Structures are given as C-alpha cells and as structure tokens.
Amino acid sequence: MPSSVSPKLFAPRALRAIIAVSGCAAIALWAGQAAAARETVAVSTPFEVGESPAGNYLAALVAGAERDTLAASTYFREALRADPNNAELAERAFVASLANGNMPEAFGLADRLLRANPNNGLANLALGVRAIEQKKWQRARSYLAKGGSGRQRDLTATLLNAWTLVGSNQSAKALPLVDKLRDEAFGVFRDYHAALIAEVSGKPDEARKRYESVYSTDKNTLRLIDAYGRFLSKQGDREGAIKVYSAFDQIVPRHPIVTAALADLNAGKTLEPFVRTARQGAAELLYGLGAVGGRQGDELAAMIYLRLSLFLEPDNGLALVTLADVYERLKQNEQAIDAYDSVSEKSPLRVNADIQIGLLLETMDKKDEATKVLTDLVKEHPNDAEAQTALGNLLRSRKDFTGAIDAYTKAISLSKGPEKALWSLYYYRGIAYERAKQWPPSEADFKKALELFPEQPLVLNYLGYSWVDKNMNLDEAFKMLRRAVELRPQDGYIVDSLGWAHYRLGRYDEAVKELERAVDLKPSDPVINDHLGDAYWRVGRKLEAQFQWNHARDLKPEPEDLENILKKIKNGIVDEKSEAADAGKKNGG
User: Fold this and answer.
1) CATH number of the domain at 14-282, out of 1.10.260.40, 3.40.50.920, 1.25.40.10, 3.90.1150.10?
2) What is the rounded CA–CA span in Å between residue 148 and residue 135?
3) What is the pTM assigned to this prediction?
4) In which band, very low, low, confident or very high, does the pLDDT at 29 lie, cut at 50, 70 and 90?
5) What is the pLDDT of residues 359-415, one digit of tens each?
6) What average pLDDT does the segment 220-248 reach?
7) What is the CATH number of domain 455-589?
C-alpha cells in the first residue's frame, strides 16, 4: 500500500542532514544549560518527587533507563539527600545531572566523586572542561591526565590537551601532539582539529595544507565544509569558498547553513571562522564526539558530550539541534522542544528548529500549538521553502489536502538549488492531489518526481499502485511495483502494495503470497492484516480470514476502516465487487 508518510520522516531534511558527521569508531562513555533565545514554548509535564527515598531511587532508575534526564536528575538528587554518603548514588546523580545540563550541580558532584576516587574518568573530564572554561589550562591538563585509558579516551584527552596548549600560548606543541594520534579510525577528527589549531594559531599555510588534506578524504561532513569554506573566505579566496559550499549543496541540497554562507559570499561578505579560541576548539571537539555518539546509538554518551560542549559554547546551534535530535529519538519530546527552542534567533538553523517544534507538538497531539507555530513561521518567513513544506506536511497529515497542495506549490516555487532535490515536493503534492481526487495533476507530479529521481521506490510504489487501482497501464504498473519491492524488499508497505495490486485484479493466490510476506515485515499494521484477511477469504481460507480481521480490529485501525472490518467479521465478504472497491480505498497513500 502507498504508505502515508509521517511528518517527522519527511520533514524538510528531517534535520538529520543538519547534524551529519563523517563515520568514526564508536565513542564510549568516558567513565550550562544554554540560555533560551526567546520566550520558551512551554510543554513540560510537571511531576513531583516523593517522600520515600526508596521510591525516589526507583523512579530515578526508571527515568534513567528511559533517558528522561530531567526526571532522573531530579529523583537522584532527592535520593542522594536521604543518603549523602552513598558513593554509587552520588555517581548516578552526577551522570544524570551532567546529561541534563545541570552543570553547577554536576561539577559539585564531580568534586565529591574525585575525593573518593581520584581516577574517576568522567568526573575528571567534566572538571577538565570546567577548567578550560575558566582558562586554567594547566589544571585542565591535570584533570585530563587522570581520565583512565583506552582508544576513545586517548582521542578525547589528546585533542583537548592540544587545545589547552593553544590556550596557554604553547601552540608549537599542539600540532605535534595531535599528530601522535595514529589510529586511522580517528583520522577525520585528528586532521580536522589539526587544521583548526593551525588556523587559530595564526599559521594559515599549515592550516590550508591540513584543510586540503582532510577535504580530499571527506567532502560529506557539514562542519568540515563550513570550517574550510570560512577559512578560504577569510584568506580572500571567495571563489574557492563558493566552490566548496556549492559542491556540498549538490550532496545535501538547500542546507540552511550552506545557503546562508553562499548568500553572504555572493553578497561580497567575508565569513568569520566559528572557532577562534581554544575554548571554542574544545567545544567543537566535544560537539563532534556527541554527534557521532548520537548517530551510533550511544545516547547517554552523546548527551554528556553535547552538554559539555554547550557549557563551553552555549550558542552552537548545531550542538543544540543534535541534542534535540537525540531526545527525539528517545521519545523525550518535551526535552527536545526545549533544546530546539534554545537555538538563537540569529542562527540559520532557527527556522528548521521551529519546524521541528511544530512537528513535535503535532506528535504530542498539541494540534492548536502546532498549527500556531507553523502558521506563524510561514507568516514570518513567507519566502522560506522549508517552512512551506513543513506546513504542507502538517496539513496533509490532517487530511486538509487543498491546503497542503497550496503549501507545496509555494514551496516548489520558492525552492532554489538543484531541481533534482525537489522530487519529494512533487511526490508530496502528488499524494495530496490524489487524496483530493484530482488524478491528472497527481499523476503529473508523480511522473515529474520520477523524472527528477528515477526509480525512487516510494514514487514507483504510489504511482504503480494508483494505476492498478484505476485499472490502467497495468503492465507498467506491475513493473513499477516489482521494481519498488526489489529496491526495498524489507518495506512491508511496498510489499503490501504489490500484494494488494494482485488482489485488485483477482490474482488471489499471488496476493496471498505477497501479503503474507508483508504481514511478516509489518505484523502490527492493521491495514496489511486486513488485506491478508481479504485475500484468505477469496482463496477459501475463511477461518484464517476471520483471524486476520480480528487481529486488524485489535490493532486500532482508522475509524472508517474499523467499520468495514467489523462488517467482514460479522458477515464475511458478501458483495465481491463493492467490497473489493471499498478495500482498495483503505490506503490510497
């Protein structure tokens, strides 16, 4: 079945590209909350601590397991008050406070932990970062030297130490220290920070050599591209900077940071580096480690690195967006909104942060708030294609297809950059047209999307299924559906489309085969289970059909689907022609 794409999945770039960092070995946990940019979007759910120390401790464990950092830090703090000499409890409270960004509390607990165990790795890291913020460079190195051993620690400690040498005017020692990192798994981090250190130390020729070296290896990392482009701009190489940004724009079209940089360069402005001091260099390292940890599934390590980075550089929009993204994946939507809302109004990422806030509010069923955020955003930024796209996604999810068509049309007209990147907008608008029962423009949009992105499986699936549903272009339609399944064989929705197309044409044995596989891939989807029930009925497996319909009923289908399912549970499929036609409408997209 043509799947109904969720707003989150197909938000403009879904902000995933914004936090793109090149691959690196997993960063293990090394065992100031940012000021809000404007009036906060208040969505937090209040909770109260209990009077029972044991109850608070258990609540803290549950919150910690769910990565609810606010609740975990609050409950652990209360539990620690009842048992202040409990070393294990103090360490858990410290980690929770650090992950939640309660930096004064975390530093106080780190001091306490080191009095009991001077070699506590994470406590030494935290206090080393505090010393960097205070410009106490030698003290920072002392803390970092006590952080334990291991490949990941070596990377973190070596590069942080290099930045402390820059801070204490010992830049000549910094680059040789960085070059001691021989592990090629850390090659991008090493070479990138070597370039930054050379630039901050006033060695432009060395910086250029280092930038060129790492750029020749990795052209897909946004942060590297931005640093290199800014360096070239600062050195007077405007055309070189434009070339670097434009090349990245071909990989990730219309990224807000790249778009803003190109606009400034084309206006004759010189771009300033975002790392100008040792403190900012250390913050950049911690941000990079946090981004990698988040992408590789180590959410706790990611949050800790990002909180330490934001303590040193509170206005780093990328760090805030990355932190918010980690919270999103953990379903901690309130915390994610707080992080997005901390992005500065001056940041190129602010519009995208507001988009994510609106989509998260929609996910939380705060529909009025979501509507207000996105409609206000479109009013404030009427020429922003991403805002229009987000509004279109929201309206489409609410079945306001006419409004969605209008928003997507505006987004297409406003979009700049490579036309091939617009395939998704034509696809979304094609869905909206189809749902609004305007097939000719819908078909035209799907064909345009395939022209821009040949063999895009989602488009192949939707257009192929729609043709089958309309009994037109059947040979080409089945060719499209089979190709979509080849491209995404584990996508239950696409496999269901092929099976349901067979069903629509009376090929019930083939339908059963494909729909059984679709159910295996997506066992909890009510529509796919319903489809399989229909196919079983057609081939005479009526007991199994009843089982599938009952299962579909229990999976909470849409109200209109539930009504049809209940009729079939009671009477079976009575009128073949009308029932098959009704069933085909269930998941038109």
Assistant:
1) 1.25.40.10
2) 23
3) 0.78
4) very low
5) 999 999 999 999 999 999 999 999 999 999 999 999 999 999 999 999 999 999 998
6) 96
7) 1.25.40.10
